[in-house]
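Hi,

Apologies if this is the wrong queue. I'm a grad student, and the batch job for BTB domain-containing protein from Erythroxylum novogranatense produced an output file that my downstream script rejects. I'm not sure whether the problem is my script or the file. Here is the sequence I used:
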Amino acid sequence: MKVPKDRIRFNVGGRIFETTSTTLAHAGRNSFFGALFDDNWNFKQHHNDSNPNSEFFIDRNSDCFSVLLDLLRTGDFHIPPHVPERLLYREASFYGLLDHVRSAKWGPFDGNRLRHGRSVTGRAPGDGTAIRAGPDGGCCVAHGSMVHVYDWMMEEHPPINLDYQRVNDAAWLDSENVLVSACERLGRGDGGMGLFNRSTGELRHKFQVWHENQVKSFTAGALSTTCDHRIFSSCKGRSNEYGIGVWDQLTGKQIDFFYESPGWSLGDADRLQWLSGSNCLLVATLFPRKDNCYISLLDFRAKSMVWSWSDIGATVTVDEKRVRDAIAMEGNHAICVVNEYEDLGFMDLRMNVGSVRWSSRSRLMKGKMPDEPCYPKLALHEGQLFSSMDDCISVFCGPDWVLTSRLRRTYGGSICDFSIGGDRLFALHSEENVFDVWETPPPPVV
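Support response: The file is valid. Your script probably expects a header line. Output copied below for reference.
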């Protein structure tokens, strides 16, 4: 790319700035400054203007321009105290530099280097249901019959309102679309699952369940999506529509349904997780939603359950009766589970029948549950394992999953859910309707 080092002068709101075309080229072709270059990256001069001291006048905020120009010069991002952050983001949007600002604010995700970025207090009273990280650094929070949506700047968009239907889960299909599952309301024929616009909160599509050539109302629960545009949801209907439904994301049509077999539980699942390597779906139904725990892998191609585990019939021990969450670790051929004391357990997927191998039993009888416990949650991200307990999130690394760091904030009470995405970790607290945003600091500018 040819980038000549021409000196360029800007008059921004009456304040003079001087820079070079090399610096401006860092903004990229799709930015405000990229439009000042021709196809060969030669700087465009004013028509009939041969004066080398000519200025480009921009009627915008000069303080914000100074911050953004330094970002292009050095890659470093510092907001002076007198510059409102929201105003700076607005100006960055005008110049097409929001992606540059975001990249400079936090670096690639690393659980051991996370720092607390901010806490956001919601407006609705009571406990939240779930928090889901968006692909662009934003998030959504399911709360009662509403889903509150935030962009990466933590600006709240119009909420998704389901008219008093309780939200069970939410998932991002992309940066502009949020999938929401909700409870059925008897006598109304509503509930189920819908696709909503992230920016406006408007319903784009409602997904239906077909059973015996009839559309059935149903309660949708846990959600999962795949890169080949499939949507999975646990389903409970009033007839025999208990199981896992599958829809085509592009057409919105139901393409499959895995019916629940007698003596097992699929329609009440707490967690769904798609395993791309084995083309199977992890389905976990756990206490306290059910009196027993059911974990299985479903192969939709063969319509078979290829692996399963349950505590039914197991010896009544502290270990086996307290599985609170489960997550598949496909690269390790294992499923990780956690109990209410944050002890991690592992089950080998290569064994058809097996028990939980707990990694630590030292605290099983020593821990003390809070008055209103929030059951622990698990997440796996880029080789790091995360587990929440009370008001803390633990990070485990290495082949033996050694505890390497803890994330804790004292405000808001116990953590009821957390989610990782867009190079951020979001932790939803139970008592004060507040969620924390954790970010990895950007690498130092050399």
